[in-house]
Specification:
The protein has 671 residues and is of the alpha/beta class. 30% of the residues lie in helices and 15% in strands. Strands 21-20-19-22-23-24 form a 6-stranded mixed beta sheet. Helix 6 runs parallel beside helix 8 and helix 12 (337-350) packs parallel to helix 14 (430-439). The structure holds 3-isopropylmalic acid and iron/sulfur cluster. One of its GO terms (molecular function) is metal ion binding. Catalyzes the isomerization between 2-isopropylmalate and 3-isopropylmalate, via the formation of 2-isopropylmaleate.
Amino acid sequence: MSTLYDKIWRNHVVSSLGSSEDESTPSLIFIDRHLVHEVSSPQAFEALWSAKRVVRRPDCTLATADHNVPTTPRTGDVTTDTYVQDPTSRAQLTALEKNMRRSGIPYYGLRDDRQGFILPGTVCVCGDSHTSTFGIGTSEVEHVLATQTLRIRKSQNMRITIDGELGLGVTSKDVILHIISTIGTAGGTGFVVEYAGSVVRGLSMEARMTMCNMSIEAGARAGLVAPDETTFAYLRSTSWQHAEEFWKTLKTDVDAKFDREVFIRAEDVLPTVTWGTSPQDNVPISASVPDPSSFESPQRREAAVQSLKYMGLTAGTLMEDITIDKVFIGSCTNSRIEDLRIAASIITALGPDAKVANGVVAMVVPGSGKQEGLDVLFRRAGFDWREAGCSMCIGLNPDHLDAKERCASTSNRNFRDRQGTGGRTHLVSPAMAVAAALKGRLTDVRKLVGASACYPNSRASNNSETQSAPIRQTRQFVSVRGIAVPLHMENVDTDMLFPAQWLKTITRSGLGDCLFNRFRVDQSLAKRPTFILNREPYTKAKIMICTGHNFGCGSSREHAVWSLFGDIFFNNCFQNDECLKLAEYASTGADMEVDLDKEEIRCIESGLTVAFKTNPTNRNRLLRGTDDIEDALAEADKISEYEAMRRQKWPWLELDISRARRRVVGNPLEW
Ligand SMILES: CC(C)[C@H](C(=O)O)[C@@H](O)C(=O)O
Ligand code: SF4
């Protein structure tokens, strides 16, 4: 008996050191589709070219520019040079274009409205955490480019079943926010989650995508929904007949066992809004800002106090009494055409007088070039309609929040400074975002229009001591000795570790100063004396002991790892009493040694020794300093065998690369 994930996994194993189902042994997995973008790929290509390697399967790869692109109109004779003013953004886009030309990978540029690259049952990766199967780091991007495979361990199986009937005005965004608050931002760590139940079966493809997309906010490796009639209708093609027969087998067997099961009653899900700086900090719109003392764990209480301070909120304030300055309808979570239709239906239901409240700036950044005339409707209601891109979800382009500006946002991350330094984000569904824009405060969309306008639309309509050397995968690591810095923080996300503004680099080195930058310096760039990394002796720390759980959650930006490795060795193996003892010792500022060979941490002055266990394969690689890509290329015959089998068994997965490239001719923003 197998789960959907077990079946997909088995279909993609190229070679396995042990049993392919063994979660402790990594297997070489074939990647059907690889999406490349400007932020996480430059360093991967640089390493690929310098190793004189080529892209194995340009036909299974596709590039888009999204994170850095301005959202102002792209009409007229524009080129990347003239359109993108910011030099660092421009450098990343130019690097992408150059790398695409050299590799032959099709590039869907800034004015391209084509869609449809992913099919049921495929393994699709991208150097971006919001890839539902699944997000990878830059070193892995390089690995996939060179080998079309990844060496990974199988995750555990989790099923989340949502049964019943969703209430009016409740959308899939509310469901996923509810799930995240139920299981926590680390609840899905180590799992691939399958969403099931009558609610999911009844959702449209777009609504399912919103849920799968935000699985990473619950820490999950991937989010899946079994393909069904809704999926087949969405693909809208008759040429999939054989494929459909196969796709119908892609479902969990009745008696399959999950490592974890969660059940949610649809009636318990209400229009939801976040109040804090983690996606799990959410409540129904009818509730009030929670009192930090209501949380059981001391860490969660402290996190809530800090979040409320940052958010400028007082416990007990009704969520509906919170006024906002900006509204952002966009991001990979909620800017699909269906999201825009739902948002537009609220405006339509209220009639021609529906206008964005005075003083509120509301922008719509569609996920693609599809408009269906909705742009006119939004503009008439006072919204600013922009071109596609990540935009204010991450603020790498000119769209951002100023300090203390409060925003109702349909994006996925309400981390500190995420949408701009000091900006305050409340995550909501598209329907709730429109309600907030029209009222100028967080608003229960159900009260506004009886909300029948929105819900039905979301249903289916049918060694590391050498500080200066650049980080390469081939670096050996045996042990590190030095001062350890204790860090008592929960949920340290990668936006905290490595703020987005520094992501616009095309190299891997010199990133040490970016680490915890917003904690290290204030707005005038003066060092904050209270932050531990600014205090002696920790300015020279080489090891970090983090006692809070869920370290490194959020984005898959490998820059966070490069910045850590540049300065200090990060170890996240312990979250128990031993970790607290190590942190206590670290607070004396004495030397500590992390020995990977012996798998122990030694506190030099006190004599305390703590043993730890790491995955044997990874340990050996680090000790030997071997190159993962070289290892995978040694199995080139097996990869070729797999490719031949794939061509024969699943012919619909082969793409016509010349067709994909055809559109690039004649468009100045294309190659
Ligand atoms: C830049 C990219 C690596 C990052 C991610 O992985 O999520 C970004 O998309 C984000 O949302 O923070
Ligand atoms: S989460 Fe935001 S920044 Fe990241 S890929 Fe999605 S839209 Fe872009």
